[in-house]
Amino acid sequence: MRFTEDERRYVSLAGLRSRGWTGALVHRLLGSPDRLSVDPRMRAAPQVRLYRVERVEAAERGEEFRRGRTRRTGGPAPDRGEGP
């Protein structure tokens, strides 16, 4: 799930998971969220952890992310077609 707040683009933890991230990878490569926000679907829910898209994409280009995905899936990470 993507969000736009304070004129920056963010991705939620659910969005990261759909991109192949595990909780361990998020913790190791991204650390603390860049922003906490109210869940737009349910205001009484806990705050949504948001990570800047630029940081996420930079981490996804790194070797450690690819190795982490390989361990999880048992094979190489699929090419997302996001070349230089």
Task: Please sum up the structure shown.
This protein has 84 residues and is of the alpha+beta class.
Could you characterize what this model shows?
The protein has 84 residues and is an alpha+beta fold. It contains four helices and four strands, in the order ββααββαα. It has helices at residues 13-18, 23-30, 53-60, 63-73, and strands at residues 2-5, 8-12, 35-37, 48-52. It has a four-stranded antiparallel beta sheet with strand order 1-2-4-3. Strand 1 (2-5) and strand 2 form a beta hairpin. It is globular. The two termini are 24 Å apart.
Could you give the count of β-strands? 4
Tally of contiguous helical segments: 4
What is the radius of gyration?
13 Å
Average pLDDT rating: 81
Class from helix and strand fractions: alpha+beta
Q: What string, H for helix and E for strand, traces the elements in order?
A: EEHHEEHH
Strand fraction band? 15-25%
The first-to-last residue Cα distance is: 24 Å
Query: How much helical structure, as a percent, in the residues?
Result: 25-40%
- Contiguous uncertain segments of 5+ residues: none
The best one-word shape is globular
Strand order of the largest sheet: 1-2-4-3
Major sheet description: 4 strands, antiparallel
